[in-house]
Amino acid sequence: MHIKDRSRTFGVLAALLSAMVMAAGVPVNAASASQGTPIIGLTPGAGFEEESGGIGWKLADGSSAKDSWLSFGGHEYYIDPDGYIRTGTYTLDHETYQFLAEGRAVPVGTDSTQPVTEDRDRAALRQKCDRIIASVTTPDMSKEQKLRAVYDWEMKACGYKRNSQIPSGDFTPSYALQILTSGRGNCFRFSSAFAYLAKDLGFESVMITGKCDSLSRRGTVAPHGWPMVYDTDGWYIFDPDMEDGTSNGHASFWKRTYDNYPLRKLYPEKRYEIYF
Q1: Fewest beta carbons less than 10 Å away: which of 81, 206, 255, 274?
Q2: What is the DSSP letter of 165?
Q3: What DSSP element (H or E) covers 200?
Q4: 119-273: which CATH topology?
């Protein structure tokens, strides 16, 4: 929601802003709230938007939010006047705030170099996965048919958007939420989302980060992330991002192993457990 008339909405703004940010343990007083910025939330058509300068929030009308507090996934973010989600320490209306590497407001003094995921994030993500699965599957489908349905859904519903940032820490829930909300993201977001969708279907799943052979520059490697799912007789790679974005559907990345993965070789480095 937008609050534009600050003189008439001071009481509402102060109460909402205090409640939102105090939930993350960041003190807010009435003076700073009175000079503060609009509060926005999740509405149909809105979502995270990756740009060259950082990550912002695209409003339902296609414009970018600026100088606003954002309440999303049980957390609070501040979008600066340039339209980007702030990280690190930031002073706003004479108050000092601190934000994690992914933008969440936290108490001042918290280590801002690593994202921190709380139970409420995973709960919000599970609700999102539940809704997607219910919309693309039917009760008479087998477990693997349902997995295929969400794989196909992600290729159609989500588009690739380049982001050169290499993830660190417990990034998978926030990355999955971002792409499932905005419909756009890089391989790490694609893979995180599919890993959680598979987990919600009852499969064991993990997220792998590492490198893969570059198709554009022979003899070099590029960062990549991919999900792995345990299906009956072992672990398999399911990579909807690569199938949709690299091969345009001409090569199947469904249920692959490291030995028969198409087009390029994978070099795994880190493994992230997936759980709600």
Answers
A1: 81
A2: P
A3: helix 187-200
A4: C8orf32 fold (3.10.620)
